[in-house]
Amino acid sequence: MYCRWVEPHWEGKLSAPYVHIVFGARQVGKTTLLKSLLPGDATIVDLARPRERLQYLSDPDLLVRLCQGLPERTRPHTVFVDEAQSVPAVFDAIQYLYDADKNRFRFVVCGSSARKLRRSGANLLPGRSFLHRMFPLTLAERPAPQVLPDGFESILPFTLATTKASPAFPKADLLERLAWGELPGVVTAEEEHRSDLLATYAMVHLEEEMRREAMVRDWPAFVRFLRLAATESGQILNYSKISREAGITVPTVKSHYQLLEDMFLGFRVPGFSGSSRRTLLGTDRFFFFDLGIRHAAAGLESSPAAVSMQPGPLFEQWVGIELWKRLQYLGTGKLYYLRTKDGAEVDFILERDGALIPIEVKWTERPSLADARHLRTFMAEHPRVARRGFIVCRCHAPLALDERITAIPWWGL
Question: Second label for 402, Cα 20 to 30 Å away, from 32, 217, 336, 408?
Fold first, then answer.
């Protein structure tokens, strides 16, 4: 089995006497990893199975009876509930069992959507639970073919402890990542099957499961919205434009974007507001969580040849997604962008440990100081906290463009 960054963190925490709630989009590897970490005699309730889901929907108390029927013993019984969001009432059953005896059961609850839980006011067990998250593969988990020079330090350090029994995923170049994304099941499949897997994900999960989760009334309009939102991924949100082109109201557009976030299929990067410039744009940028899924949802071809026709915007999205995943895992820091009404922009601003790190993304192998003009302006405006800036590009080794700005290859991110 391939190594995941969260593996040693979960391995230590899952034994703690609390309810463990694991959230993440479908196919990021939650269930596979959890089953490898849980005891072999764990009791599994799989609510992704229609028959089992129907049983628990009609009788949520079934979980109480199932658990109470387990034999008494000195070590706790592990109970794993998969796709728990489909039956929100199971959280009440888990609370009842946990409060009755905190040491008899160890509950691990997995879900791929917070939509139904949020809308139904589901009990997420405050004071009784740990919340864990999982995302598509990071660069540490699926490394590049290139090797970094000794002593090189990443913009946002993020390392992975691999072993022979648990190695990193196969290495991949940049065009592969831009074309097929970073979902484990997709990137480990044969190349000729990857586009079909992504198309199936878009058709079955993005459409059918969203339809079930959100009870969308105007389904054709939602499909139009989904394609437009995917096409606009990485751009500043323009609700009015999407509203006109999809033929739905602005409030409905906002609700559909919230649905994507609730199902962990997208995230926002807010505009940076800590500048003295009065012409800043403050509207969020919205990103799909994975480039392969973005292409499939937009109805676009997924292949290295297709993305190489206009790779720059996709490269920028990949960098933003990679930084965002690391920040979510690390639990500290924020990600912003900066853009002014007169066109000046900084692609990403990383805020962490009291420092601001401006980052530009360029599809070039030969970066120059001219590519860093907006970085230099930003750093001049924030001299105390923005002491270093970076250009992420396709250069073959780190390059010092001046004493404070460094160009780094994408695989050194």
Answer: 336
